[in-house]
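Priority: medium. Attachment 1 of 2:
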């Protein structure tokens, strides 16, 4: 059995939200599942926040620097991905501006510190993919997910609620607004645990939940679906859930976070 950890990362939204004690601990629940002794390559899939992308993009850098040590980008895997014709190169400015991948780098460095000279990273910026594109990228990346030496990190927050996010879904039957948000999030989390990409797509269409990493999640779910065709057994479990604040009125706002792990047997 081997672990392929999937992180829903608390610090993704920015430092002002991670001031909440419950939120800042969310990523640690996922990173504690990492086994650095078997991990030789770390794929980090994060959503694009600043530039419009209809495909996925690769970094122009060779190395990412962290406060702990430098993380080397796997140029061999990059070359293989580039040959498919499915990827573009993001600009250095885009790379520097985007936080969805960056926020995972110190966690990755710390989790892998005992084997820091024995692994590389594969950062992938994921655009606003169509359903067919999520399937295409999922199928492409499935062979890497099947490799026990590869670790996948999926960067996403959950519900962004409030007028500032232009999303104020509220199911009054759940009680306070924050309880409605949690019910909505946990509905989506339950569907992700089923590892069914179509059900997740339908959930997003119905509720429009503002899950910023919905496309990286969709790529992962489609990669899992591809591997299941060959009889590979997998299960996903969420380990932690938190909100940046508890919304009680229409002037409030919050971002939700969760951490989970995918286990490939």
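Attachment 2 of 2:
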């Amino acid at each position: 059995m081997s672990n392929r950890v999937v992180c829903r990362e608390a610090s993704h939204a920015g430092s002002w939200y991670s001031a909440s004690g419950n939120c800042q601990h969310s990523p640690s629940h996922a990173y504690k599942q990492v086994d650095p002794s078997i991990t030789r390559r770390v794929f980090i899939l994060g959503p694009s926040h600043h530039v419009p992308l209809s495909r996925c993009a690769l970094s122009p850098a060779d190395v990412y620097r962290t406060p702990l040590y430098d993380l080397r980008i796997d140029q061999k895997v990059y070359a293989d991905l580039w040959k498919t014709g499915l990827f573009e190169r993001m600009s250095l400015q885009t790379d520097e501006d985007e936080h969805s991948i960056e926020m995972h780098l110190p966690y990755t460095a710390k989790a892998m510190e005992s084997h820091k000279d024995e692994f590389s990273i594969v950062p992938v910026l994921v655009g606003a993919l169509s359903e067919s594109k999520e399937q295409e990228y999922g199928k492409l990346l499935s062979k890497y997910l099947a490799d026990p030496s590869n670790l996948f990190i999926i960067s996403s927050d959950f519900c962004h609620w409030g007028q500032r996010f232009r999303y104020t879904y509220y199911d009054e039957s759940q009680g306070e607004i924050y309880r409605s948000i949690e019910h909505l999030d946990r509905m989506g989390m339950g569907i992700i645990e089923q590892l069914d990409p179509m059900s997740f797509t339908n959930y997003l269409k119905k509720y429009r939940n503002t899950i910023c990493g919905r496309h990286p999640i969709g790529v992962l779910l489609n990669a899992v679906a591809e591997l299941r065709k060959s009889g590979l057994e997998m299960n996903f479990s969420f380990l932690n859930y938190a909100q940046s604040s508890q919304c009680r009125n229409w002037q409030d706002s919050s971002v939700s976070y969760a951490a989970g792990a995918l286990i490939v047997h």
